[in-house]
Amino acid sequence: MKKILMLFIAVSLACSCKSTKTTNSTASANENAIEKKLQQTWVLENLNGKLITNKDFSISPTLQLASSSFSGSTGCNGIKGSLLSDGAGKLKFPNVTSETKKCDAKKEGEFLQLLRTTSSYSIENNKLYLSNQFGLTMSFKKG
């Protein structure tokens, strides 16, 4: 009788753990979904409080944001990676990858570093504002 009771308890625990994992992964997938208003093309206008110029980038960097990934350009090299959102106003670019063509884009490294440290965003008047723990880092206009 003890063996049957122990077996019943073990099976019950295994089933309850499995159902908890399924529920958590579904909730986390919903939390990581990127808002629809972000899912479009954005063109960089401002980097670290300064308007970008042709001296900084030969072509303006762009981001094409999708529901869980992004692609774009640094003004010379192609970039891509995944997107994560922990809720409204939160946004991260956890694994940015870039081509390695030699470029004259003086601010390319700064752009990539700020993208990697992004933690939040806001959208106002058709502009996307990205921030990190220190404050506003970049602004983009709709592309």
TrEMBL record:
Keyword Signal: yes
Domain DUF306: 37-140
Signal peptide: 1-17
Pfam families from the UniProt entry: META
Keyword Membrane attached: no
UniProt keyword terms in alphabetical order: Signal, Stress response
Domain of life: Bacteria
PANTHER family to which the protein is assigned, alphabetical: DUF306 DOMAIN-CONTAINING PROTEIN, HEAT SHOCK PROTEIN HSLJ
Full protein name: Heat shock protein HslJ
